[in-house]
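lol so apparently i was supposed to do this last week
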Amino acid sequence: MSCRVLLVDDEPSVTDALRRALRGRIPGTVLTATSAREALAILAREPVDVIVSDEQMPEMSGSELLSRVRTAHPRTVRIILTGQASFESAIRAINDAEIYRFLTKPCRTDDLIACIDSAIRARDARESSLAVRNAPAPDLEVLAAGFEEALASLWMAFQPIVSSSRRQVFAYEALMRTEHATLGSPLDLLDAAERLDCLARLNELVLARVTEASFSAPPGALLFVNLTPTSLNDPLLFCGENPLAPIAQRVVLELTERSSMTQIPDAVEKIGALRELGFRIAVDDLGTGYSGLTSLVRFQPEFIKYDKELIGGIQDSPARIHLVRSLEQLCGELGIRTIAEGVEQEAERDALVGLGCDLLQGYLFARPAKSFAQIWGDGAPAASR
Ligand code: G
Ligand code: MN
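anyway here it is w/ guanosine-5'-monophosphate bound
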């Protein structure tokens, strides 16, 4: 670290003593000024990393000087070193000058050096985090290259959905995964696909991978496959070329309203067309605010999935227990089967089973994995019966 420090005090003996004390102890240059005016002249001339100013000076106080420095030279870290300061000047130093530290005289040289050092580090850390946050979005060419790499490493994970009463796997949810550094999360990959206008390619790959994997899935288990609503605009879904079409009878398409269904004016008709091909429909993420109750009426799904947020710690939440009990009753009357996602604890499982929710999914049973997890290892999956 090489730095430029400016010491300001109307007593030349103070600045001289400090300069001698700092000499050789901090890497860089120590400058001095005996008035605010002189300090501002130096700052106008050359960059300064840290300014350490006395408070009580004729002409202009230290806190006023540092307020001006803050406005004109915001990168210069500001420290007050004062024998005494009024409450008023302390307030001004903090609020207007946004000083880094208030040091009192006499100050040990070691303390002053440590303070200068940490001030510069704090500034650099803040600036680098701002730089990351304000970095321009990667341009489309870079994004496209990353997208291709991510597609090349795409694989499907499968997580079981179990029937608690039968102690058997009922189905598996297929979840896309990639090893890519920046497009590793499915939401980022979908976002990139939409920005690059490549959603159809991503869909085709996912559907093909699920179909391939289905041949090694336990025979009776259903396969749940996530679809973003905008995928409903992809003609591939509705034709015989849809890789999933040959196994449509065992596929449940999960729809979430995470990206808005309002972009699909004819969603109801499209879902009807998918049913004609043999697919069943699940409304995903119910209880998050993304998937509302109207989707139950509009899409008349065969399944709904309670979102993790609704399930986590449900046993301790009377309101959520009440909500799930009501939804169980409503779905029972509408002939919709319910699935609870994100079951991590036995207490959550027990509460859900007590409320009548039989189909469960979550880390308690198995994490998503490359292979089809067998939970109880006891023969045919429940869905085949
Ligand atoms: O929105 P959707 O239902 O598709 O979300 C499924 C995601 O939830 C997957 O990424 C999966 O890894 C994750 N998941 C599955 N089971 C659990 C769980 O028990 N706890 C948590 N926190 N996440 C889970
Ligand atoms: Mn899902």
